[in-house]
Amino acid sequence: MALAGTAAAFSLIATGCSSGDGDGGGAESAEPIASDAFDEAMSTPTELTFWTWVPDIENEIALFEEAYPAMDVTVENVGQGLEHYQKLRSALESGEGAPDVAQIEYMYIPTFNLTNSLLDLSQFGARDLGGDYVEWVWNQVANDAGVWAIPQDTGPMGNLYREDILAEAGLDAAPETYDEYAEAAQLVKDETGSYISNLAANEPVQLIALLWQAGIDPFGYDGAETVSIDVSSAEVKEIVQYWQDLVQADLVSTDAGWTDNWFQNIANGNYAGWLVPAWGPIFLQGTAEGTAGKWRAAPLPQWDAANPVSGNWGGSSNAVLATSENPIAAYELARWINYEPEPTTMFATEQFLYPALTSLLEDPEYADQPVEFFGGQEVNAEFAEISATVDPTFEWLPFMEYVLSSYNETVGAAWEKKGDAVGALDVWQQELVDYATEQGFTVE
Amino acid sequence: MTATMSAGGQASAAGLHRPRPTRHRRGRDRSTALSIVVWALALYFLLPLVWLAIASTKNTGDLFSTFGYWFGDSFALWDNIQSVFAYKGGIFGRWALNTLLYAGVSAVGASFLATMAGYGFAKYRFPGSTAMFSIVLGAIMIPLTALALPTYLLFSSAGLTNTVWAIIVPSLVSPFGVFLMRVYAADSVPDSLIEAARVDGAGEFRTFFQVSFRLMVPGFITVLLFALVATWNNYFLPLIMLNSSDLYPLTVGLAQMQSAGTSGGGGEVLFSTVITGSFISIVPLIVAFLFLQRYWQSGLSAGSVKG
Amino acid sequence: MAVTTVSSAESPAAPPSSRRAPRRGHRGHPFAGFLFVVPFMVLFIAMIIVPLGYAAYLSLFENKLIGGTSFVGLKNFAEALTDEAFLGGVGRMGLFLVIQVPIMLFLALFLALAIDSGRTRAARSARLLAFMPYAVPGVVATLMWGYLYGPDFGPITQAFEALGLQPPDLLGTSSILGSMMNIVTWEYVGYNMIIMYAALRAIPTELYEAAAIDGASRIRIALSIKIPAIKPAIMLTVIFSVIGTFQLFNEPALLDAIAPVVITNGFTPNFYAYNVAFVNQDVNYAAAIAFLLGLVIAVLSYVVQLSSQRAERKVRR
């Protein structure tokens, strides 16, 4: 039944297919794919390769294979983060061994688009799915030229904090503004010896998300040869100066994230909180089991309390690579696991990926579920509210690997030494402009 | 290599390979001070491995909370071993087999090729032989990892990346092995023996396989061990060549397991599994080393002195 | 880089043994010797000469994300010679060379002499223990030491805390190079020791028994008879260490996971070449770096040999 249902839905969508003038489209895009082409593709025994780091994604794949018995999906984990993209890039360059479908974080979509590596999914009618996803998320995967991936999960930023430690410092709620946050940091340090949070020196994306929250988009890319880079503007410096003051007053630590040291500090309460997206709880629940029940979730502190806003950190999508020999089946895999109710619910409830689908976010069964780890708080609903406040437009540069690694060498190194991060922004800016110019871009 | 080899020549002229099994009058004139210093050093080599052994009996909680050089509250070795072998559907065993395959095939192939070439250089003179040998000698100094990058690019344009060949073929070339075997062949295979075989009407290759090779076995094994360790320990080459986790050797697999816990996007923390996996992966090697140790020496005492 | 070594191998001081060896055998079948060498040489050319040539070729081009590939001559080399990241890595390896390599080789030589002297208790076991780390893959060794250095459950920290002392930050910016030197020393002392020990065992006893009868002290025998006798083996370890040092990759690559900001992209030249190729996606520049790196190593190895040769000549005079 599932098969027939989706096939019908597909053809419905496919007939309403947009013109799809993207690079990946080719000759096919002119003609919508007919229902029988879809049926044929999905009933022909096909082997698909899927590169992803999401743990236990095999479960969702199993559902997909159940719905389409002719499909045989091989899941490969080639590493996480940078390693994944490096492998992907080398496979694409050698023209050999690239997967059909790949996990891609939103910020990397322009990077892979630059090399025409992603298939334009609007030819299959993907544009019509847009309305069902959160607006800012859809803006990340789709532009005027095409639809480049199907959103899987998102990372609206909030503030996870230890209620008990804040209470010990005499605070009965999370700070609402950044001024309050700085005062609270002093109190927490004085009363409990803990840091109010850790700004990981090696997490450029956390800082970028905080810029996003403040309405600053330092990057721009016109989809062709022109980029804009402004990571050392007065606005950016103001934000970084705020954090630098806290760091230099020893109120916020800058330990590298995801190391055993960092996990340990979370587990033993050295950090009283963590400015982190909705996926943060996964990491807490695994390693900080002993602190279950003591955590709470709140929105980020605000610059303007009257106008609460947030940014996004992480989350990812599934893209079909232009080199795929089975584009229809690959698209259906990406669409099916990220759009159909059964797999998307499973992602949200078993892998704790924060959903990108509006329907799921509004589903009371999901949103109003009390979470023990957070002392019975309805965390999902809290983050659903935050998700609605994420600034809907944010652009990236088409060479994010370099952007991030260059951050670590400059600003990150300054954080590590608790030194002049504000000054390091100028160096970062210079490195990015130099790189972009060297690579032939026009920098605005 | 000039200096080293010329000096080696002298040592050789002085008459080298006589074993001296009973040179030391055992039990007498032992120095306590010397023993203490040597054993302090030996402990430096041992203690990290002891820590690894103890740490692999702990669960993640104990790892963080108990003293490193004593056992934790729970004895989790078996659980850890289980979780190592259960990791991603038992892929650890696969990695171990891959490592065996890559190291075994490369080492046997490399030492065989090196033995043949070393013998050829030592016992024959043919047009270009000195030039060729000199180039091989020079290649000992080329950093192999610096070659890995262009090799990768070549392989990738030939569509050979992500195959077992991408690991095995580059590992078959051991210039140092050729050098070692040339020295070894020159010393261990008397020309008169080859001459005698020739008089008997044996072909050159038959002579090599039936007469000469036997005499070169200790050197062969030394080169084999060098090549084995080199491939077993290789990380850079498989890291860039391979994409499928099914093809990974242990080194790349373990490093990936480690990094799975250390980056964003939904990984789990696997400290105890990584530690136990590391421990399991070195146990067979250490055992093999203890048994094969004398072979390192026997081949080297010929090669290195003159090296 | 082959050229320099060719000329050195063919210099007047060329080994007597190499002249002696091919003297007789070639009489029978000149072609047979060639056949013995061919299988190796084919692979040698395919896996070493061709990639080397390819690297040289690649290094003359430039590939832009926008605009594609173009010939730029030696621009990449010129750039590398003023590239702070590359020079910084080379400088760091220079430190390795003057600090870590001597320590490692001294320890190896000391152990080899001590064990060979027969004056150490349970010398055989000590020798095995010292050699054991060589069996541990660099990846595992680095992972393990990473944990040992750990600021939390690392036993070094625990020991300091138990003694009431401030534990050192072994993974900080100022200490990471030293920590890395320690890992490499731990891994390779035993390996170098075995090479030297094997050479010591091959010294004919007569050489120093006479000296012992004359009443020379053991230390004197070690210094003036044994060490000179195994000089070739020591030179071999020096050259291998030079090569090994400039190839360091596993250690920075794995420590990068636990000390991410401390390990910079250019921490070692080889790690830099990797990052340039795979992060910056600049294969051409990476090829130039790899090529320069090979050149640095070849020059250094040559200098090492030359200086030892000169020292030898002095002694002979």
Automatic annotation (TrEMBL), chain B:
<feature type="transmembrane region" description="Helical">
    <location>
        <begin position="215"/>
        <end position="235"/>
    </location>
</feature>
<feature type="region of interest" description="Disordered">
    <location>
        <begin position="1"/>
        <end position="28"/>
    </location>
</feature>
<keyword id="KW-0813">Transport</keyword>
<feature type="transmembrane region" description="Helical">
    <location>
        <begin position="33"/>
        <end position="54"/>
    </location>
</feature>
<feature type="transmembrane region" description="Helical">
    <location>
        <begin position="165"/>
        <end position="185"/>
    </location>
</feature>
<dbReference type="Pfam" id="PF00528">
    <property type="entry name" value="BPD_transp_1"/>
</dbReference>
<dbReference type="InterPro" id="IPR000515">
    <property type="entry name" value="MetI-like"/>
</dbReference>
<feature type="domain" description="ABC transmembrane type-1">
    <location>
        <begin position="96"/>
        <end position="292"/>
    </location>
</feature>
<keyword id="KW-1133">Transmembrane helix</keyword>
<comment type="similarity">
    <text>Belongs to the binding-protein-dependent transport system permease family.</text>
</comment>
<protein>
    <submittedName>
        <fullName>Carbohydrate ABC transporter permease</fullName>
    </submittedName>
</protein>
<feature type="transmembrane region" description="Helical">
    <location>
        <begin position="133"/>
        <end position="153"/>
    </location>
</feature>
<feature type="compositionally biased region" description="Basic residues">
    <location>
        <begin position="17"/>
        <end position="28"/>
    </location>
</feature>
<keyword id="KW-0812">Transmembrane</keyword>
<keyword id="KW-0472">Membrane</keyword>
<dbReference type="InterPro" id="IPR035906">
    <property type="entry name" value="MetI-like_sf"/>
</dbReference>
<keyword id="KW-1003">Cell membrane</keyword>
<feature type="transmembrane region" description="Helical">
    <location>
        <begin position="100"/>
        <end position="121"/>
    </location>
</feature>
<feature type="transmembrane region" description="Helical">
    <location>
        <begin position="269"/>
        <end position="292"/>
    </location>
</feature>
UniProtKB/TrEMBL annotation, chain C:
<feature type="domain" description="ABC transmembrane type-1">
    <location>
        <begin position="90"/>
        <end position="304"/>
    </location>
</feature>
<dbReference type="Pfam" id="PF00528">
    <property type="entry name" value="BPD_transp_1"/>
</dbReference>
<dbReference type="InterPro" id="IPR000515">
    <property type="entry name" value="MetI-like"/>
</dbReference>
<feature type="transmembrane region" description="Helical">
    <location>
        <begin position="170"/>
        <end position="191"/>
    </location>
</feature>
<keyword id="KW-1003">Cell membrane</keyword>
<comment type="similarity">
    <text>Belongs to the binding-protein-dependent transport system permease family.</text>
</comment>
<feature type="transmembrane region" description="Helical">
    <location>
        <begin position="229"/>
        <end position="249"/>
    </location>
</feature>
<keyword id="KW-0472">Membrane</keyword>
<feature type="transmembrane region" description="Helical">
    <location>
        <begin position="128"/>
        <end position="150"/>
    </location>
</feature>
<keyword id="KW-1133">Transmembrane helix</keyword>
<feature type="compositionally biased region" description="Low complexity">
    <location>
        <begin position="7"/>
        <end position="19"/>
    </location>
</feature>
<feature type="transmembrane region" description="Helical">
    <location>
        <begin position="285"/>
        <end position="304"/>
    </location>
</feature>
<dbReference type="InterPro" id="IPR035906">
    <property type="entry name" value="MetI-like_sf"/>
</dbReference>
<feature type="transmembrane region" description="Helical">
    <location>
        <begin position="31"/>
        <end position="57"/>
    </location>
</feature>
<dbReference type="InterPro" id="IPR050809">
    <property type="entry name" value="UgpAE/MalFG_permease"/>
</dbReference>
<keyword id="KW-0812">Transmembrane</keyword>
<feature type="region of interest" description="Disordered">
    <location>
        <begin position="1"/>
        <end position="25"/>
    </location>
</feature>
<keyword id="KW-0813">Transport</keyword>
<feature type="transmembrane region" description="Helical">
    <location>
        <begin position="93"/>
        <end position="116"/>
    </location>
</feature>
<protein>
    <submittedName>
        <fullName>Sugar ABC transporter permease</fullName>
    </submittedName>
</protein>
